[in-house]
Amino acid sequence: MSIETINSLIPYLQVGAGRLGLVINNAIKSESELSKSLLNKAHLNFRIAPVTGLSMALSTAQPVTIDRLLICIAPGRDKKWSWSNIFSGLERQVLQQQLFINELIFISSTRVYDGISRGIVTAQDNPIAQSDRAKGIIQAEKQLIRLAKTHCILRCCGLIGEQYQQFQTYLKQADGKVRFAVDIDQVAKKVVERLATTSSSNQYSIVTDGSCYYQGRRLAFEESIFLSGEHKLLQQSDCFKQQARAENRVIKNPEKPGF
Questions:
Q1: Of the listed ranges 29-38, 45-54, 191-200, the one predicted with least confidence
Q2: 19 or 247: which carries more pLDDT confidence?
Q3: What is the C-alpha to C-alpha distance for residues 200 and 48, in angstroms, rounded to an integer?
Q4: Residue 78 clears pLDDT 60, i.e. is over it
Q5: For the residues 24-48, what does the mean pLDDT come to?
Q6: What is the pTM of this model?
Q7: How far apart are CA 155 and CA 208, in angstroms?
Q8: Which residues contact residue 91 at a Cβ distance below 8 angstroms, ignoring those fewer than 6 apart?
């Protein structure tokens, strides 16, 4: 796919056309004013690669300006890319001034908090990673926020819904683990809320359905606070500050990567 009018401002470009991407498209279409302003001149279903970056044909020396760039992708089973390298080409395009991004929205994961073992975690807290995957996602977030004037990082819990049946089975298990989830439609609504604003603030969000799943039961977050002494509780929240606050957290290993 190529961009024919290089000199014009692209109001909205989306990378990722999987299950979540399609639901987001439909959510935008349901908002008539937003759909009119974004989708009429939008570029959808773009691909991104570690080496070449965005799959646009930069056939002239004129730079491309994207007003709002949404990235909602996940590593495939073929493992041709990882979070640590997928945005290298995009970074090169920006550094070489082939591409300018006004606002970047990234669908991230609450896995970035997997180094925290207990306590209430909000969007104001620094992510602390234990697993390699979590460290890779944090690296990707850091890389992306350098590439745009403003950014919105939506850290989502396990996705559930009609097209995400697998994770729903885990929520019913009474194995002593605390789990969190969010319906795919709620994630799409969160994206639409951000697109409908003209905020210039950087945003970090923990996106859940406001519940906690424990011992096969679904508890309202307020009902689950008693678990915070021994478990990590992810609270649905937003943070509009430039930097997340740093606090002493209970972690699973001594490494504390900064954010």
A1: 29-38
A2: 19
A3: 25
A4: no
A5: 79
A6: 0.88
A7: 9
A8: 53, 143, 146, 147
- Residue 204 CA, chain-centre distance (Å), reads 9
- The tens digit of pLDDT for each residue in 204-228 reads 999 999 999 999 899 999 999 999 9
Domains plus CATH for the chain?
A: 13-251 (3.40.50.720)
Q: Parallel, antiparallel, or unpaired: how do β-strands 203-207 and 181-183 relate?
A: unpaired
Angle between helices 184-195 and 19-30 in degrees, nearest 10: 50
Burial state string for 5-42 with b = 16 or more CB within 10 A and e = fewer than 16: ebeeebbbbbbbbebbbbbbbebbeebeebbebbbeeb
Distance CA 226, CA 233 (A): 10
Q: Give me 240's structure tokens.
A: 């509009």
- Work out the number of other CB atoms within 10 angstroms of the CB of residue 189: 16
**Percent residues over pLDDT 90 in the chain:** 57
Closest CA to 177 of 224, 247, 238: 224
- For 11-15, 103-107, 125-129, which range has the lowest pLDDT when averaged over its residues? 11-15
Task: Name 154's Cβ contacts closer than 8 Å, sequence gap at least 6.
Answer: 105, 106, 107, 108, 187, 190, 191, 194, 205, 207
Structure tokens, 194: 């951000």
